[in-house]
Amino acid sequence: MAKIPVKRIFICGLKKDRKHVLESIQMEGVVEIIRRDEEDEYLKAMDVMPQKLQFDKNSNVAEQALTVLERYAHEQKGLLDSFEDARELSREDYDRQTAHAEEYLCMADDILKLQKRIDEDREELPKIESRQEALRPWVSFDLPLDPGDTAYTTTFTGTVDREISEQEVLEAIEESAGEAIPAEVSVVSASKEMSCLFIICLKKDRQAVAEALKILDFSAPKSRSSALVPSEELRRLESQRQELLRDMDEKKAAIAAYAARRDDLKFASDYYAMRAEKYSVLAGLPQSGSAFFIEGYVPEALGEALCRRLTERYDVACELMEPGPDEDVPVILRNGVLSEPVEAVVESYSMPGKGEIDPTRITSIFYYIFFGMMLSDAGYGLLLTFGTALILMKVRNMKPGTRKMMKLFFYGGISTIFWGLMFGSFFGNSVNVIATTFFGRPDISLKPLWLDPMSEPMRYLVFAFACGIVHIFTGLAIKLYQCIRQKDYMSAFCDAVLWFMFVGGGIVYLLSMPMITGMMGLSFTVGATPAAIAGAVAVAGCIGVVLTGGRESKNWFKRILKGLYAAYGVTSYLSDILSYSRLLALGLATGVIAQVFNQMGSMLGATWYGALIFILIFMIGHVLNIAINVLGAYVHTNRLQFVEFFGKFYDGGGKSFEPFTEKTRYFKVKEDK
Fold first, then answer.
1. Cβ(581)–Cβ(597) under 8 Å?
2. Over 363-424, what HEC string results?
3. For residues 320 and 301, is the Cβ–Cβ distance under 8 A?
4. pLDDT of res. 671
5. Structure pTM?
6. 3 state SS of 187
7. N or C: which end of the chain has fewer CB within 10 A?
8. Parallel, antiparallel, or unpaired for β 667-669 and 87-89?
9. With respect to CATH, is domain 146-220 assigned 3.30.70.2750?
10. Is the dihedral of CA 11, 15, 19, 20 positive or negative?
11. What is the signed CA dihedral for 413, 416, 417, 421, rounded to 10 degrees?
């Protein structure tokens, strides 16, 4: 249960060294800087927002270029690459790359310009294809679609949205005009959806013909401005389309050619993101005309070495101090090999608050036990253990959070193997099913070392409740310890000891009832004398809770009412204990589903195709089962910690230590801490 001691650090230096000092602190990554918003007549904050915005923009440009490059030159990654952390760069490599950052940014800009031209070409393509589609019905027409008028005649070219003949058009004109009008009608093409018409008439009849065509819903073609005949215009448009496609292919190839310099773009993205972060911190530093000041927190073990390095390199003063009693000091957790993976679980709930212990070590004990009981299959445990071990061995440079999660499942897998052997489950009842179906040996099976949950569910349920009682009482014991450590003896007695008496005495008294012990299948019953003592202790605890549960109220009537309400909280203890029945529920679910898949696979018997079907169903079924139940075990184990355990002693509310460091995605500078 370790929270790393943290010191307050104060650094004062000349402005000429400000940039280098900040970069050194950022590279070290061990100082959480306190940002000050207030100013006075001597100390001012710099307005560095324009520079920060520019660096953010540069980082985004590089990131966008990487996205575009990935589109045309996919980066080949292995199955385990997603677990990899940022790649390490030596200080020399970082300095060398920094000198080329602007060049990399120009390269990113070139990629984006190429993509912009591709987008413009892509927008133009549908327009050309639309014009081609409109011209295809006119391909046999040997005049431009807008041939113009002669001295005495005028022409109409257009479409009607149905199939129509020349005679029908002439009749429509005659009917509209009320007399026969000399006109020449030519149907260029016709289908059920559309007819293309060319009409020529005398100029004096133009209005009459136009009125008739209006009744037919006649419309001019979309592509009629070209002086070329439709077939020639189609060839010209196709040439344009092919040219656009070739141009797009050339630009895509030009972008793909940058694939060899993908790492340079990644460096640019990280480099400018780091600079933006530095300027964000710089904006919160108090500064005078010639000096700057940095306040923050640093792990006690690293503080003196950091101060020594800074004072050796720069003209700065560096001082370490103990934080004030009322300071909200950031929290850093450090635990042993077995407990460290569970830090992620504690952090996801909340960091320990001021005066609270780090519950990680105790939590880890129960966490692994409960996880194994819920998954409860030795075969699944073996897969989980060896799978996570393989990933941990293969991926050396793994993200810290991912490594913790892999270790969590590794140790959970070991616990699962143990409980699987205790319950006699190895891929369900696969040993017995395989021996019976394919070898005619129903006598062969994996015998449980302790109990079979399928045949003794009540015994398993009682064990689950017992685990829950121990878990909850451990939380109360931690509450007692924390109160005593803080010298809050009243809370220690009222909020811990009295509840031990009330709940513990009540449980022992219940175990003296034959109805209760018989229902639970227990082989013992508490005797009359211990039962009487336990009952008296429970009553005393209940009275104590009633009298002290509302002790913060000065009014006696309100105090008693609040005390009665506090005593009613014993029902929450009952519901908490019942919650541990999920240990039985998930354990049985894993075993029952596994057995169902085994029975399904063995239905065709000891034939060659029966064996093949068994293998297929066995593999698919158990993969699905382990995936679902590993997730279920993880979620419900977390719930038992967060609700039933932490609720007894843990308020949280602490602030996680967030050092000023390189917040990068692709590279990190290897620096001696």
1. no
2. HHHHHHHHHHHHHCCHHHHHHHHHHHHHHHHHCCCECHHHHHHHHHHHHHHHHHHHHHHHHC
3. no
4. 60
5. 0.85
6. strand
7. C
8. parallel
9. yes
10. negative
11. 180
Token digits of residue 583: 């240990």
Distance between CA atoms of residues 402 and 398, nearest Å: 7
- Which residues have C-beta within 8 Å of that of residue 199, sequence separation ≥ 6? 155, 156, 157, 169, 183, 184, 185, 186, 209, 213
In the chain, what are the domain boundaries?
146-220, 367-452+580-656, 482-575
Evaluate whether 90 touches 670 at the Cβ level (below 8 Å): yes
Chain segment 506-520, per-residue pLDDT in tens: 999 999 999 888 888
Tell me which long-range contacts 251-257 makes (C-beta under 8 A, separation of at least 24).
251/114, 251/115, 251/117, 251/118, 251/121, 252/72, 252/118, 254/114, 255/68, 255/69, 255/72, 255/73, 255/111, 255/114, 255/115, 256/69, 256/72, 256/73
pLDDT tens for residues 203-250? 999 999 999 999 999 998 876 666 889 999 899 999 999 999 999 999
Q: In this structure, which long-range contacts are made by residues 489-495, counting pairs with CB atoms below 8 Å and at least 24 apart in sequence?
A: 490/551, 493/548, 494/544, 494/545, 494/548, 494/549, 494/551
CA-CA-CA-CA torsion for 662, 664, 668, 669, nearest 10 degrees? -40
Q: How many CA atoms lie within 13 A of 74 on its CB side?
A: 3
